[in-house]
């Protein structure tokens, strides 16, 4: 009789909680965030009245929960920041709980933030979790006359298929647009990494080089700050340090000129 009651309780739980999952690899629960990037971009607006674009680039927040608290407190103390970009590896294992923990802390920022996907975010069912919580893996937005192109460069996670990064999509995003003077790219894996599809490096760099007004490409992944240029390219590539190293980049675009500085916290 006792076993029958337990079975009945289990069945009722399943059918009455159809929006919940019970699995280490679940992609949602009753407290799940949804479409954070889109919501924050709506909040951000287009910056049409803003002649200075001031933003922060950080990355690799995985396993850095205490540092993330210190991070948002530091960012909130800096005046006139427009938004924050997290350059991938929000998580270590691509799990819902990790993404929720980080989102809960980053939601304490007083300015909007968006993320790009990292290679660790693609493990397990991380791709599905990320898409539901944050949105598309390739997207762009315009702010203050600058187009920010956020995209997936985690080639190894796709077995170097030749489709990641998506060069045709990038080229389409880089087409001239009314009201856009400059372009900035943000992704996780930099083109000097073994995790980036080497067959695509030349076309990737050419897409940026051939775009008038292209300013810079920001990345994460290596956990160390680095500036570099690819062969026969004038485009600067910059890797931001990891959250765990308590450092981020504060970038500023004024009159089509970009500058940035490393900030410790």
TrEMBL record:
Q: Which domain of life is it from?
A: Bacteria
Can you give the residue ranges of the Calcineurin-like phosphoesterase domain?
Answer: 54-224
The record's annotation in InterPro entries points to: Calcineurin-like_PHP, Metallo-depent_PP-like, STPP_CPPED1
Q: Which PROSITE patterns match?
A: PROKAR_LIPOPROTEIN
**Coiled-coil regions in this chain?**
none
A GO molecular-function descriptor: hydrolase activity
Xref: PANTHER family: METALLOPHOSPHOESTERASE, CALCINEURIN SUPERFAMILY, SERINE_THREONINE-PROTEIN PHOSPHATASE CPPED1
Protein name, UniProt field: Calcineurin-like phosphoesterase family protein
